Batch of 3 targets.
Target 1
Amino acid sequence: YKFLYMTSILLSDSTGYQWVSFFEKESEILFGCPPEQFPYGKSKDDEDKAYQKIMSISGQEKMFLIRVKSNRYNNHDRLQFTCIGIEAIDARLMCRLYLEDI
């Protein structure tokens, strides 16, 4: 068998928040390790390490490329949000762009 990531994460910004699904590649970029190295809770120590790994990504600013898909189920429309790309924010570049706008 092979371990795979499939995570659902609540993303937020100044406009609101949204649950987004992250699959293999994007989750690996987000957590910074392949799924085989992620502590998956065999012991109390693994649970603590997993919690620390999850909390380490909380509050980080990143740019996400999100795909939105509309599904209809039982006469209800539902939007699914899936991350298809992640980039770190370059603070110097962003400041330079903001200064150029002023």
Target 2
Amino acid sequence: MSYSLEAVIGGGVAVERAAAACGGGSAVALEGGLSLLPLVDRVREGIDRRFPEAGTGAMGHWLREVSSAGRLAYVGAEFWGGQGAQWSLVEERGEILLSSDSIDAINLALRLLGVVAEEGKDEFDTVGLGRHRRTERWAGGQP
């Protein structure tokens, strides 16, 4: 079974501001007071339009800008048949606090956002990131 996620996670206000700064997208509530902005095509296109001169670096420019509203984690994961990878980048006020591509990258980012794992769960499961298996599902799209 596959799992695919590309999103920005943070406190509700910071994520709402991030959504507004890319011209679209909707934040989704997670457990523990966090919100998630799924980075679906229309959101990525909004980021690219905001920073046309940045080319492939538009995401970095956008995250640096919107992290002025609060600590944000850019997270991603791609898994298929038990094999895959995950990555995370945490920024606050334009400063990189974490950049990881370890197998625990998302949990590390969630810890920096203040998540404390519930007994018998990791941070990923504590906030409910297993609710959907594809980024598009977080945005209300098809699987």
Target 3
Amino acid sequence: MNVPTHSGYKVEHQCPQCGAPVTLEEADRFFECRFCRVRSYIYQKSFFRYMFKPSERTPKDRNIIYIPYWRFKGSQFTCSIEKGVRHQFMDMSRLAIPEEIGPFPMSLGLRSQALPLKLVSGDTAGTFIAPLGFKKALALMEAMLTAIKPKEPAVLRQYIGEARTLIFSPFYIEENRVFDAILNKPAGHAGPEILNAEKLGAFRPDQGTAFIAGICPSCGWDLHGSSDSLVLVCKNCDSMWRPKKDELVRVEFACAQTEPGDYIYMPFWCINADISGIPFCSYADLARIANLPRAILPEWENRKFSFWAPAFKINPEIFLRLSRQFTVFQPSPKLSRKIHGLELHPVTLPPREGLESIKIVMAVLVKPARKWLPLLPETKVTPKKVRLVYMPFEKRHHDFFSPEMRISIAKNSLTAGTNL
């Protein structure tokens, strides 16, 4: 298996087959146990729930109180009439209880990068405090950013490649003081709310984690993929699979055929969708609304078109550029389902991210912006068909190049994308 380089936090797991310890990066989903060699895929319902372990020096007679923090990571796209589409990368953590409850840090700081995390298990001793809802916490994070850098009113705000994680940090109470159970140092005075932790909404976090065997459901061969891949490949029966609940389901895919050469095949989500509110029914509509420098042919009125979006993580600017270029170009190569011997770039963005990108791509395309952008919030996107399509890019020294579309992707941008 290919193992990409990440710079996020590390998570301690156990092999579901032999119980051996396994330490993974935050984005890792697919791994091979170095002891029993069994391949497993980690599936998580909604979001991961992690915890820091208390220090070994923490008094054994103290009840550990686990305080929740929301951690959010992803690319934010903001659309305004004056400045068009702007983007920024967010990686923030935020205390997930009202701050007046106790002397707890507002964020995790560098702790999540410096210390390993563990999945919350049902047998963990201690009191877990119920968190604020994620939407409320995200609004507080956005307010913090706005206070630092005021923003113009947004017509549309969308997140692509976002990941939310609930992280519990341990504390305990001694002599009416709150102690950090990792540093074993006082954090501040214990008020009446924290002294009676049960009133804060103590609960047991739903783990919702499943380990799925990395075996092809169709032919029984080992599946392949990088550690952060969301789609696994069977090189024996030319099939692809993704997790759904506690099983693997088949992925509809195709590879563009090309002349022999040294290629890497980059994955894209090709999406057919009905758009209400803005006339995006045919390729002729696209040419008119995007004011493309092309004479509109009569046959374009009946020619359907697809939205395209990268199925891999890359910085927001390049993601938006590729989405626009592919959507305008509307590639239509001969397709094949044969993948044996092809070098496939891993799929690291799920299809829902492609769907969520459609309005952002529309915001970049429509002209004049003042006419169309105010309609975007109420525009409804109804997906009809979503397909994974691999497009060939020539390997060059510093980049990958598409001879058909005359566009390139810098290799270092893909390396940096593994950290997004």
